[in-house]
Amino acid sequence: MTAPDKSFESKLLESWQANAELWTSAIREGKIQSRETTTHAAIQQAILAFSPNKALDLGCGEGWLIRSLANQGIEWVGVEGVPALAEKARESGKAEILTLNYAALVAEPHRCGGGFDLVVANFSLLEAELLPLFLGLRKIVTPGARLLIQTLHPCTLEGPYLSGPRSESFAAMGSGTWQTMPWYFRTLGDWLDLLRAADLKLLSLCEPLLPETLRPASLILEVAF
Amino acid sequence: MTAPDKSFESKLLESWQANAELWTSAIREGKIQSRETTTHAAIQQAILAFSPNKALDLGCGEGWLIRSLANQGIEWVGVEGVPALAEKARESGKAEILTLNYAALVAEPHRCGGGFDLVVANFSLLEAELLPLFLGLRKIVTPGARLLIQTLHPCTLEGPYLSGPRSESFAAMGSGTWQTMPWYFRTLGDWLDLLRAADLKLLSLCEPLLPETLRPASLILEVAF
Q: Per residue, what are the HEC states of A51-78?
């Protein structure tokens, strides 16, 4: 496991600020095939199966998830650390969207309210340090609350299977000038160790499959606080 | 998930009986590279890290694991459902080796004694139905006991990522006339569901890496009863 340098988190946020327009178009125009065929529906189903009352969309991006489940009787709050994406999410008017990065959320969890029985992080846990965030979330959830984390399935990435910083060039996105994003790769074993360190209980692993290959498109960790 | 036919478990045992001589040679002559470089040491380390007093080697095969840790102050009992392999394991005289298949163990768990603070299943859970076995093991372990399961890492196998019966031809073993073995493939998610159904708690996942590729050689599930 390689420790990233100190500017890792700020470079991560900067890349999303730079890519906000391109990313918003990619999501809203359905350009990412695996999301369209598999991972959008997988996280929606995982959320609806739990029938939450009040849910926090952690790293909500341009807000597609809240929009898509706006009429399901769930009180949503979105939190997004990238101002340009938070602004996009706010346009829909479907929920309160707060511009807060994870460092701010760790410092003052109650800035996003409380009483959540569900926290969802949909491909939004790219940071190297997540333990303080998980500990902070404890302060704003109800007893029995769930955490749903959808992430890249660690086994589907090539290269050495070792936790550490990686780079995403968005080359697969085709057109547009994307800024490279640093992100932190975690093995399955390290995901579990992280949850355990935060005293979170893994209930199940969901591995939604790509219809064309029947290989995992992502990993959804269903976790109890 | 496809349900195997009723003769699956008996064909599995038959294949090991037929392959017992070839398998014993393969293990004792160190012919399986991933075991030599990685998985033998990984399970040994996981066992020693727990410092057990009395351990059950579940599906002990020709007995290499017990032999290799015979001088570590652990009281070992080996259980093996394939008579020809149990006989090989008994040759070393390092532990009590019982010829019992899992069905017999489920029916009468105390036939292998009791008071185990560790149960190890090293590449030996190939059956379709494991829940009755896990429930049976509960009756012969001490409070706080651990279960260590080393298995093929589900992500490293090609083909549709779906739990179900598969066949192993042992083609990679080179010479010798091997009998094809039926075995049951489980996804990660299904391993976790199985543990949860048996009220077993997954503590950690160890993913030992092949030194030449730095990709997982196996998966070790560290579980608490």
A: CCCEEEEECCCCCHHHHHCCCCCCEEEE
- The shortest C-alpha distance from B46 to chain A (Å) reads 14
The upper half-sphere exposure of residue B36, i.e. CA atoms within 13 Å in the direction of its Cβ, equals 9
Distance from CA of A214 to the nearest CA of B (A): 5
Chain A environment of B202 (Cβ under 8 Å): 192, 202
Residue of B nearest to A153 (CA): B155
Q: Is A204 within 8 Å of B187 when comparing Cβ atoms?
A: no
Write the ipTM.
0.92
CATH code, domain carrying B36:
3.40.50.150
Taking 50 as the pLDDT cut, the residues of chain A under it are none
Q: Is B90 a residue whose pLDDT tops 90?
A: yes
**CB-based contact B189 A206, cutoff 8 Å:** yes
Domain range for residue B46? 8-224
For residue B2, being part of any structural domain is answered with: no
What is the rounded average pLDDT for all residues in chain B?
95
Of B193, B205, B214, the CB nearest to A160: B214
Cβ-Cβ contacts under 8 Å for A76 (sequence gap 6 or more): A54, A55, A56, A57, A66, A69, A70, A94, A95, A96
Closest CA to B207 of B187, B222, B194, B192: B222
Dist CA B16 CA B222 (whole Å)? 26
What are the Cα distances from residue B58, in Å, to A111, A173, B27, B52?
52, 49, 17, 15
Considering only CB atoms, A204 lies closest to which of B153, B156, B196, namely B196
The percent of residues above 70 in pLDDT, for chain B, comes to 97
Q: What is the largest CA-CA distance in chain B?
A: 46
Count of structural domains, chain A? 1
Residue B15 lies in a domain: yes
User: pLDDT at position B6, please?
Assistant: 60
pLDDT at residue B117 tops 70? yes
Using an 8 Å CB-CB cutoff, list chain B residues near A203: 196
CA distance A112 to chain B (A): 32
Under 8 Å between Cβ of A218 and A39:
yes
